[in-house]
């Protein structure tokens, strides 16, 4: 007997679990003439079977027998759990998806007379809309555009529920389950994408390193060339200054020599200098090379000096004449 009652009670609970929840079908308040309506509730009153009015929160009076409270609508935000259901995406992947729906009754009259069971109607509408919206997206977009999917479902529900006096505030997807094989392929895709990013990052690092090495070599070559250029410029400037210094010294020596030759006994001094240079050059001939070119009269120093002085005298005559001409011209210009 107890076992039979237990089974009957379990069966009754299962039947109640799958029956749609109807708030208006619960025990309704009785007409006691004086009624107190709670806040955020709307009591729909019928008089002789026709809609009469909606009672406001607070104190209300009704006529016995004629007036009857037909529906009680809650104006609070209602949370409805959308059961799990199957949906097929655009790329033919079967998904198991469930969600939570948040709604509120804005017009108690439409919610009472526009649809038999507003909550059940909205639940069915949410399920069909969810399947319709999922069929427009591929599997990857379902996960990436979850927020957009929720907003599209809310928009579609509101378009149909306006006639029922119900406003859908928001819809949230709780869980999305994919087949095991698809899940494994998604994991493999994620791993491949990570390996790809790692390879790309490694190649970019190698590229940046090669660029840095090339830039360093380029800068080193530029600095080396600039240093070599500066060295050559400094070296050329030094050689130029040395040449100028030698030229100035040689010019000064020639000037002094010319002044000394112009003085008395200058020829004798020149003959002495030539003789000394001849002796010095002849003494160094055997030191520099094994092959020696000797003049025909190596012992005749006086002959060599005389020959050198003759060449000097021949070259010095035009210079002396030009000097004398310049001196006479300067004297003629100085005379008034």
TrEMBL record:
Q: Which family does it belong to?
A: Belongs to the band 7/mec-2 family.
Tagged with keyword Oxidoreductase: no
- State the compartments where it is located: Mitochondrion inner membrane
Name this protein carries in UniProt: Stomatin-like protein 2, mitochondrial
- Record's superkingdom? Eukaryota
Which intervals hold domain Band? 32-190
Q: Which InterPro entries match?
A: Band7/mec-2_domain, Band_7, Band_7/SPFH_dom_sf, STML2-like_C, Stomatin_HflK_fam
Keyword Signal included in the entry's annotation? no
User: Which Pfam families does the record cross-reference, listed alphabetically?
Assistant: Band_7, Band_7_C
